[in-house]
């Protein structure tokens, strides 16, 4: 029997991101910028940016997952790393699609915490095992999640670094 998975459609993502933004607004948090954890967090950050009227969006590229439930030992920041001076004394909303182990969010949160006035995290999904308990969560699940942006195969396969 196949493993039951959580499936997020594009339509459901639209509702989820609006509800997540509403939770941020209802909490009275007014971020100066939204920091996206690429790649899955790009979609969340864009939606939150529009819903919260925050035009200042930044991206942090972090590699951790290498396949379905396969990951590196530790998450790794990939260049370009945001310049800390751009974050100084700002209220930052970190956006990602899922807090699974929480290792990626912890890396980004800790990077920000040294420089910003305040940092909070918003995710579509949070898993119980996450080391980071996010401030704003649309849904909690233990299942593997099929996101609409990564559920299909790539249009083109890139040659691996060793090829």
Gap from first CA to last CA:
36 Å
User: What is the fold named in CATH at topology level of the domain at 28-66 and 85-143?
Assistant: Rossmann fold
User: Sheet bearing the most strands, described?
Assistant: 6 strands, mixed
Give the low-pLDDT segments.
none
CATH architecture identity of the domain at 28-66 and 85-143: 3-Layer(aba) Sandwich
CATH class of the domain at 28-66 and 85-143: Alpha Beta
Helix content: 25-40%
Organism: Amycolatopsis antarctica
Keywords: Glycosyltransferase, Transferase
Pfam family, one: Pribosyltran
Domain Phosphoribosyltransferase: 10-150
How would you describe the overall organization of this protein?
With 163 residues, the chain is an alpha/beta fold. It has a domain at 28-66 and 85-143: Rossmann fold. It has 4 helices and 8 strands. The strands form 2 sheets. A 6-stranded mixed sheet has the order 4-3-2-5-6-7. A two-stranded parallel sheet has the order 1-8. β3 and β4 (70-78) form a beta hairpin. The mean pLDDT is 88. GO terms for molecular function: glycosyltransferase activity. It holds the Pfam family Pribosyltran.
In short:
GO terms for molecular function: glycosyltransferase activity. The protein is an alpha/beta fold. Helix content is 27%, strand content 33%.
How does the SSE layout of this entry go?
Blueprint: E1 6-7, H1 10-26, E2 33-38, H2 40-51, E3 57-67, E4 70-78, H3 84-87, E5 91-99, H4 103-113, E6 118-126, E7 136-140, E8 145-146
Parallel strand pairs: 1-8, 2-3, 2-5, 5-6, 6-7
Antiparallel strand pairs: 3-4
């Amino acid at each position: 029997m196949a493993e039951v998975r959580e499936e997020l459609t594009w339509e459901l993502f639209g509702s989820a991101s609006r509800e997540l933004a509403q939770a941020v607004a209802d909490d009275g948090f007014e971020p100066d910028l939204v920091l996206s954890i690429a790649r899955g967090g790009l979609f969340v950050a864009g939606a939150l940016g529009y819903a919260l009227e925050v035009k200042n969006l930044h991206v942090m590229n972090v590699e951790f997952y290498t396949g379905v439930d396969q990951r590196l030992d530790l998450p790794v920041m990939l260049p370009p790393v945001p310049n800390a001076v751009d974050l100084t004394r700002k209220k930052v909303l970190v956006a990602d699609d899922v807090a699974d182990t929480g290792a990626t969010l912890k890396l980004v949160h800790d990077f920000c915490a040294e420089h910003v006035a305040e940092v909070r995290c918003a995710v579509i999904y949070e898993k119980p095992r996450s080391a980071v308990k996010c401030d704003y969560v649309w849904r909690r699940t233990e299942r593997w999640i099929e996101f609409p942006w990564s559920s299909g195969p790539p249009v083109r396969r890139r040659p691996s670094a060793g090829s």
